Every structure is written in C-alpha cells, then in structure tokens.
Amino acid sequence: MTIRVLSIASEAVPLVKTGGLADVVGALPGAVVAHDVAMTTLLPGYPAVMAGLGKTKAIHSWPALLGEPARLLAGTIGGHRLMVLDAPGFFRREGGPYVDGAGRDWADNGLRFAAFSRAAADIASGAVRGETFDIAHAHDWQAAMAAAYLRFAPAGEAPPSLVTIHNMAFQGHYPRALFDQLDLPAEAWAINGVEYHGGVGFLKAGLEAAWAITTVSPTYAREIRSPEFGMGLDGLIRARAGQVHGIVNGIDAHDWNPAHDPHLAAPFTARTLGRRAANTAAIEAEFGLAPGTGPLFVVISRLTWQKGMDVLLQGLDHLVGCGARLALLGSGDKALEAGFVAAAGRHPGRIAVRIGYDEALSHRMQGGGDAILVPSRFEPCGLTQLYGLAYGCVPVVSRTGGLVDTVVDANLARSRRGLPPAYNSTR
Ligand code: ADP
Ligand code: GLC
To answer: Is 159 in the pocket of ligand 1 (CB under 6 A)?
Structure first.
C-alpha cells in the first residue's frame, strides 16, 4: 500500500537553499519512493520558487490565510509532486527566505511561518478536494506549527504528524501577542501546547503535538536529551523519549556523484582517484594557492559559532606553520568573515578565502581538496562530510552529533574487520 506523505519545509533544492535542510528535503522524495512512499513537498512561494516553477495548476485558495489571500499551486520538483503556497503578502519579497537584504530577520517571520503551517495543516487534513495524506511531515520550526494546527484546529480528519528536528538551535520564539493572530483555540495556550516561557514557541509546540519526532542522527537524538544540546527543550525531549528517533541523513547520489559531476574539471571514480589531481590543480589556480606544496584543506560552511569557525581561525597560523594550505568558502558572522580574510592576507598562497555562497565551487572543492574540515561545536548531522566521503576529500571532524555516526575512524573500521591498524594512534 502506498503511503502518501506531505513533506512541509521552508526550503528544498533545487528551488531554494540556505543550508543542509534544503538538500535533505529535496532528496527525500526520491529516497523514499523505493519504500512505496509517495511524497508531496510543500514550499512557500518565495520569488525564487515562483521563478523556478515549471507548469503549475492552482488547486485551492484561501481568501484570508491569517489575514492574507493565498492560493495553492501544484507542480513538480525533481519529478516528484510539489505544492507551493503562493501568499504574496507573506512570501513575495526580495531578500532571503528568513532575512531581508540587510540580513535582518523579517519582522513578521512568526506570522509568515504560522500561515505556512496553517495552510499545511489544512492540506494534510483534507481541505483540498481530491488530496488526502496519511502522514504530515514537518521540518524544523518553520513548519512545526503544522503539527499544532493539526492537533488543535484541523480542517477535517487529521493524519498522524511527524516533526523532524534539523537543528535545535533555531526554535522560533515569539511574544505572547502573536498568539492572538494565530487563529488557534484558547486551549492551545498551555504549557503542553504552544506556550513557551510566556511567549509562543513554534518548535516546542510542534514537538508537543507531533505523533513522532525524528532528528537527523542517532547521536544527536541522544545529545538533545541534555541541557547542553537540548537548548531549553531537553526536558520535553526526555519526556517524549519513546517517540524520539535518530535517523541519519543521506545524500542525493545523483547530484553528488564525482563520476559525472558537471562542475568538476576531471570527473573520477574510486578506481580513477588519480584524476583528482587535475581537480586539485584547478582549485589551486582558482584560489591562487601555491601549487603542490602541502596538504590542501577545504572548508565549505556557514561561518558561525555552531560550526566552530572561531576555533579554526585561532588555529590557522599553526596549521600553515605545519605546512598546510586552506581554501575556504563561506559566509555568516561578519567578524569571522573579516578574520578569515585577514588570515588570507597574512598567508598569501597558503590561505585563500571566498566569502559568499557558490554551489558549483563547493562541488569543485570537494573534488579537489585533500581533506575537509568540520570543527563543529554541535552538528545534528552535517552534509559536507558526507559529500567529502563521496568525493575522496577526507573528513576531519569534531566528535559530535551526526559527525560521530558518519565518520568512522580508519583504525576502528579496520579492527571491526579484524585488520591491523592503518596508523599509530595515541589514544
Ligand atoms: P548546515 O545546514 O548546518 O549549514 P550542513 O552540513 O547540513 O550544515 O549543510 C550545509 C549545506 O550548505 C551543504 O550542502 C554545503 O555544501 C552547503 N554550503 C554551506 N556553505 C556554502 C557556501 N558558502 N557555498 C556553497 N554551499 C555551501
Ligand atoms: C541543519 C543542521 C545540519 C544538518 C542539516 C540537514 O542545518 O545544522 O547538521 O545536516 O540541518 O539535516
């Protein structure tokens, strides 16, 4: 029997991406199809999404969805079903999905993603003629309220809901005043409802309401039971431990395949690893690094505290002193951006930095780098280490979250197979 799932998310490749969430949401429909799961993805109609849509059909409308007119468009994404919530008052504006052109959060983010979640709950509970779903699957705080709407105010029969935590650090907290705009019954204002420390907590509300909770690795599922990683919601996670499951992310093996990656100077396979040298030379030239002089580390990352980028910055002079080179692609905290640019200035030919976001360059760096550094303080799963593993760019990672589950020490892997150690370990 085919299971019909509505996957509700604020971003998905190839239409809109700010991080790994988009990779996973975009790849999921193709990954579950083999298990007889028919997944429809619901996205907000940002300009990039509207521009990237092929042929669509309007299948539903709301005269006032939390105050704004909206309609639902049906199309496809990567050959799978897509629904887009076209609510111009909430989503048709230039800037990012969550921030304006100057990098400030949109002032009405609470209402925007509540409206998105309200629409998702309507769709999942039968408001759209001819559409029925067996499971509503909401990703992160931007979609989590869908589970709360399904619990407190479904349009019809509510299917079971699943909330996936991609990152506990982002929870969607808003003042009490927002509650009056959410169109929820008074009973939802409760400690086991949407209330959180006197305001509204979107992720909290979703985790309370969801039938099941998943996160993106088994280690992170354990870590978020502790105050250090639970970020205020560890008590809730402990209370619902029986419903919390850690399932490690996968990657889209078509988009991320070195054998036929259109971004690489020289595509290669595990048998033709020697060809990587041409990709390394291309990266050296592109970044202006001194060719062939020591290991080439790469970093492709948001430049934030989570990612441990301040720690890397502190260690850079030492790294270069040991003979290494670094090519970094990233953007984020302005102080970190400036710090890496300054380090590149101190070490011309050894450290080179590209501040910005460049999907094609990220593929080339995985194809040419010797090792990818992921020094995260916490990492629910992480995808760049998985791309590194697929591209022969050795991941060097912190021992946290999904990095623990996906990067296995060579000696450990060998000992499990009864083989002697590959290198001398001091531990
Ligand atoms: P997170 O979602 O926490 O940022 P992940 O490792 O799960 O971390 O996913 C990050 C995704 O974003 C990967 O696909 C990575 O290649 C990509 N990425 C991060 N920074 C950049 C950048 N500056 N340019 C291109 N891609 C980037
Ligand atoms: C979040 C996490 C990252 C994870 C991604 C996709 O952005 O920070 O670790 O890989 O979501 O699940």
So the answer is: no
